[in-house]
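Problem: given the chain below (175 residues), write out its structure.
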Amino acid sequence: MFVLIYMSKIFYHGSDDYLPPGTKLRNCVDYEGKWGTAGFYRGLEYHRPNKFTAHKDSVFLVKELEDLEYAGGGEEYTFLVVPKGDVTKHDMYWSTKVTELMDSGFCVESDVVKEAALKYWCGEASEDPAWEYMCKEAIVLQVFDWDFDSSLIKDARADLEQKKILRREQTLCPS
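Solution.
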């Protein structure tokens, strides 16, 4: 199953660098230099279907604040962002599984690595999924320091989503 989300939901993105609201996020870092030797990267990219954006060209997002650390995002700042364009959904369990398989001796071309990688790319849920979302670009809406109360960040997200819903209803049903 290929999961493509067409929406303007608000997500979380972790960063070690401060970027002001309104900034367009794109993956500008040397992603391959940082992650190129990691088992998950080699396995996922080797088996990535052409219709998906490469990790090195993606911005990574999560819906659950608690998933930021697991997703490997920066930890100094939490951004509330809205993605631009298509968003794909992937269970991080499968990227971890690819790493485990390759670390235990399976080669990147093996059927078991391929199976786990394709489950990641196709958005298949494991028994206990932890979702990451990928897009080519996202816009920073709000920025919070690392030590900011997480409940306030969640409240800010809910408030922004509610304002977006109300704005959409006003646009669709003018008086």
